[in-house]
## 1
Amino acid sequence: MTFLLARRRSPWATALLLFLALIAVGGMYAVASGSMRAEATTPTASTTQIEEGRELFLVGCSTCHGLNADGAFQPDGTIAGPTLIGVGAASVNFNVSTGRMPLAAPGAQAKRKPPIYSDEETAALAAYIASLAPGPEIPTPDMYDTTGITPEEIALGGQLFRANCASCHNFAGEGGTLTDGKYAPSLTETEPRNVYQAMLLGPQNMPNFPDTTLRQEDKRAIIGYIEALRETPNSGGIDAGRLGPVTEGIVVWTVGLGALIAVAIWIGVKAK
Ligand code: HEC
Ligand code: HEC
């Protein structure tokens, strides 16, 4: 910064500062929008498992998702359930194992509730949907298992969590409300596999974080951080969402970025 300030009258410095400010804003936007879809992969499952999944689907899911899982409408023309062609085994596993599906009744947001299908049934449902079209696969334990994770990786996970997740899920992973009666749930009880899948898929109003945005090892670091949060007892006193060291981060971030933009504008004005 001092280097840039010292040379502030050069038109190059003006351009460079504006450029840096744009990159900073652009980076924030990219984090907020995370729009790319995860890579598709080919499913592998036995024919009997797929057949079993299809039967479970016809009984428990087809009223809303259609007999061929390609979506269905309600009598009034609104969507009863979206198409599941191409959503992949991961989306079925996430939505069924967190109890979000089957949806009990149409509402603002499909909520987490105790699952009603066993692990085998959930796997069969996932195999059936994956047999219709390729889509994101269920992550394997080496991708989310955090045994042997180092303190450095957990620290990195904390940084990534504050940058990518805390705006909606709160700094302590306790969740928070969004607009229109929607909310980001607490992460304190979510299984590591489902934390991974949520990042991969971006369910409902959550953006997704494909490997191009958060690499596989970054996702594992974030999971390690969330687990460390769970294990850290609250030290008593007022529970302000464990804001402590994070507030400093926000101040540095906001003041730093604000200053950068202010300087850029000031130089722009001076240059004229
Ligand atoms: C009462 C209607 C209803 C029933 C029953 C139901 N669903 Fe859904 N499902 C929905 C709706 C509505 C959504 C969209 C939720 C949203 O995104 O807001 C959805 C979303 C999903 C998704 C996420 C799709 C995506 O884009 O990734 C999956 C997977 C899914 N359902 C699977 C199932 C399975 C499997 C069953 C049966 C065990 C089931 N659903 C039963 C209504 C239903
Ligand atoms: C723009 C706000 C937003 C951001 C940013 C965000 N999430 Fe979410 N997250 C949500 C919403 C909304 C849901 C609920 C979706 C649903 O119910 O299907 C959710 C659901 C989840 C769930 C499912 C929890 C459960 O057990 O039901 C997990 C895990 C999760 N998010 C983790 C993350 C992680 C990790 C990050 C950062 C890499 C992140 N989220 C970033 C809004 C957000």
## 2
Amino acid sequence: MLDLTSASVSSVVESAPLPAMGTLPDQIRAGRAFFFTGRGRWSGNGTSAADATEHGSAWSSCGTCHPDGLTDNLTWIFAAGPRQSTSLDGSFSHGIPGTVKQRIFNWTAVIDELHDFETNARGVSGGKGALTTSATCGILAAETRTSITGSGLASPPVQEVQDTQAMNCTTDWNRVTDFVKVIRPPRARRYGDAASVSRGAALFGGAGGCTHCHGGAGWTISNRFYTPISLNNGAGGLPAQAFTAPVTFPLSQSSPNTTQIALQHPSADSFVPTTIPPLQLTCALRNVGTFGVPGSTATTDALEVRSTAFIFGGTMMSTRAQGRAGYNVPALYGLAVGAPYLHHGKAATLEELFTDPLWLPHTQAGNVNFLVGGSAATDRADLINFLLTIDALTTEIPVPAGYASGCACPGGGGSC
Ligand code: HEC
Ligand code: HEC
């Protein structure tokens, strides 16, 4: 307790005992600390005199852009393109235990494990990172960063490297994963017009056809159906496994790629006559016509840029963003606190998302006759009222038959 008169600590009162070392609550606590405090290896690299004593000045952490584990609601220009910060409440689903799943990460389905964000800890926060080796682990200056050429969907995956390398220093990324799993979506509206909400739910699962893409666990068909290991991510694995679009899907909505892991297909975007990196999980992508600003080539070309040009065949190719072939279907938790919407944040409100003709291909992706005619305004209001009630407790609505993701393991199995 602080004694304000003498400006001293008069007694120590613990609000609650810390969880026992090594238990899951303790691991979650550690992951939360790494995520938010950005101390030590998360922002310091031990090479300067200041770092040696300070162990990281914590000027940035994951929490900088993901306050409370959610989103700062800003659109950053990242290496893949303009990217609205994703709320991590939907990175894992929150439905019935046993059905909980991890989605593929990022707007263009380019990341499959939390460990891949090592590049963020090193590059954005200036930290040593948590994938290091040393004979004297714990002294940052004496630790060597492991090369992470296999981050994203490439091989060997980062967690596999962590688990198999000699003199590995920490498994902190496992703790961050434990924490992200328990980020709860904000509690949604409870006191709306109940009849309107249930009409909206019926439209979502029925006439709107929203569940073709936003059905199932975590309100998205996006699903990490495989364990990131060399066997799956390596050349003979998912990069060689055929991708066949579900027959019920209009071809225009499916990725033109023919294998499960691939670079964006050259046919998707005539702006650059080549593939666009990084590697994507093809079966998680759906094209709903949201690349740039539809109808305005100049605005699209100015908007859909990436922070660094990509190199192809030794030539600096372009700063064209990835995404023309479609996006990773987002989870729909926390919409009331997550505006603006879409990967580039171009829809300011849910009303705009479902009214502006620019985004009509998305609104009608599940049914070309949706939100037309005399009932459009009421249906739109009902749909939005329902969307605003989605949180961890809302009963998930399954994906209708025929609209499964099209994901398949090496050899054709459903999980690997
Ligand atoms: C500079 C802002 C910024 C910082 C710092 C940041 N993120 Fe992010 N994060 C983003 C943006 C923007 C996206 C969307 C990127 C994309 O889709 O290409 C994102 C996406 C993610 C996702 C994908 C979620 C999903 O379900 O698709 C995860 C997981 C994530 N970040 C974790 C982290 C972790 C862990 C750290 C700390 C090491 C971190 N982020 C630091 C801005 C940031
Ligand atoms: C064919 C697949 C598909 C269908 C059908 C579909 N969506 Fe989407 N939805 C997507 C994709 C992909 C995005 C992301 C697009 C982007 O960011 O550019 C998205 C984005 C959204 C967003 C914005 C989320 C955010 O965090 O920015 C909302 C809300 C949404 N959809 C609700 C719906 C509703 C309601 C319906 C039914 C009327 C529907 N969607 C139908 C694929 C689909």
